[in-house]
Amino acid sequence: MVVTTGWSTLIGFLVLLYLQSCSGSNCVPTADGCIPFGKETKEKVFMMDPTALVVNHGSYGGVPRVIFNAEVEWMKKMEENTFYWFLPVMGYRLHLLEAREEIAKYVGVATKDIVLVENASSGINAVLRSLFPLYPHGTKILRLSLAYPMVQHTMSYIAEMGKLEIVDVVVDIPTDEATILKKVREAFEEHGQNGIAFAVFDHIVSMPCAILPIKELIEIAHSYGALTIVDGAHAVGQVPLNLTDINPDFYTSNGHKWLCSPKGSAFLYIKSDHHKIIHPTVISNQYGNGWDLVHQFEYTGTRDYSAFLSLKEALQFRKNLTDSVVWKYNNNLCLEAGKMMSAAWNTTRPLPDSMTASMINVRIPCNTKDRSKGCYTWSEPEMYLWMFGKNVWSLVFPDQSGYLYVRLSCQIYNDMDDYVKLMKVIEEFNHPEQ
Questions:
Q1: In the chain, pLDDT over 90 holds for what percent of residues?
Q2: Measured between alpha carbons, how far is 367 from 386 in angstroms, rounded to an integer?
Q3: Residue of 298, 430, 310 whose CA lies nearest to 376
Q4: How far apart are CA 398 and CA 392, in angstroms?
Q5: Which of residues 246 and 371 earns the better pLDDT score?
Q6: Which of 69, 168, 207, 419 holds its CA 20 to 30 A away from the CA of 191?
Q7: What is the pTM of this model?
Q8: What is the distance between the alpha carbons of residues 124 and 122, in angstroms, rounded to a whole number?
Q9: Pairing mode, if any, of strands 198-202 and 140-144?
Q10: Any residues with CB less than 8 A from the CB of 337 and at least 6 apart, and which?
Q11: Is the dihedral of CA 113, 314, 108, 124 positive or negative?
């Protein structure tokens, strides 16, 4: 038994050394070898259809097999003894603390200020629905036209329910960081000190995918006395993230996108000053009677919490890869793919490279000679039917002038061949009008 234990320890140590030696390379370290990024990673590490052309990781992510298996193991533990699993201060709650600790460390804040939620939509709703009853009718709240539809709809809902006034900052594309900062500053100047109660900003916009100067936006809002709520749905895992540095009042981000954790795993940061005014959208047993913020969020009814717990494995998976390696590979791939497409089509990219991380936008060339009919002879649904029929998965979106853009996501299972194929599929459909 001593010998067996000794060999097990030695083997585990050697595997750890091997994984560490692979760290920093463009490959996924496994016990069987280091799998190169690109096609091999797609086939051997992830679980997606190998025949599908997936350049849309930004929408719903993708789970590596090792993280999926970890989630299944958590599910098994739940079913082994469900009564124990759901008891307060026992069961899954013990492991939930570990997941919160790891996320808090990763984003640079105290564990007490982090709670787990199903997705960024849940996080945004928890904050906005908690805040709006606290303000009198006519209170002004600010949003950007670039905001994700969920954010816009939720803000419209609370404005209607609480009779609040929305200040819309319109940002057309193309744009850049300086333009956005100028527009936001002007909006606050127009309404004066304490004229706007709170502002909601994206950290990384979904469409057009763009990294916003979030630290500067927060500083502007705070200088005028406004609270800041950040929809960071695309941020964690795609860009470096230190919440202490950027200093929001509230910040939420999805793990299932760029951290590759299971669906239904996200976090919500709540600055300690605001703990007593924020509540989950589902109020369950742990409300009142001394239950604090963390306890309210850790149990929102009988449900499967395994996705939350699997965040630990997702963070370990990322640690094995090394953040800087993933960020560099994805960013280089996106910039190269974007330049290739825009050059081939003789079109533009609406944002500077500084606003690009692992997603990029390229304008699709017009295919009609008679511009009075518009730029294209087809509609977005028709383009989607064409692409999906060929098992190609990407996104198309319009700007304010009617031009259409393709949004490219770049992940470690992609390579340049994917974007060459995507370009050809779009060209086959978008043939010029004769």
A1: 88
A2: 16
A3: 430
A4: 19
A5: 246
A6: 207
A7: 0.93
A8: 6
A9: parallel
A10: 360, 408, 410, 416, 419
A11: negative
Residue 273: Cβ within 10 Å count: 10
**Residues 275 and 114 sit within 8 Å (Cβ to Cβ):** no
Residues 204, 234: contact at Cβ < 8 Å?
yes
CB neighbourhood size of 40 (10 A): 16
**What stretches of 23-146 show up as alpha helix (H) in DSSP?**
39-44, 57-60, 65-80, 82-86, 92-107, 120-131
pLDDT band at 89; cut points 50, 70, 90: confident
Query: CA nearest 311: which of 250, 251, 268?
Result: 268
Q: If DSSP codes are grouped into helix, strand and coil, which group holds residue 260?
A: coil
Q: What share of the chain is helix, strand, coil (3-state, %, to 5)?
A: 50, 15, 35
The answer on pLDDT for 178 being more than 90 is yes
Measuring CA to CA, which residue among 272, 293, 268 is closest to residue 283? 293
What contacts 16, CB < 8 A, 6 or more positions away? none
192, containing H or E segment:
none
**Predicted confidence (pLDDT) per residue in 355-387, tens digit:** 999 999 999 999 988 777 789 999 999 999 999
Alpha-carbon distance of 407 to 397, in angstroms, equals 8
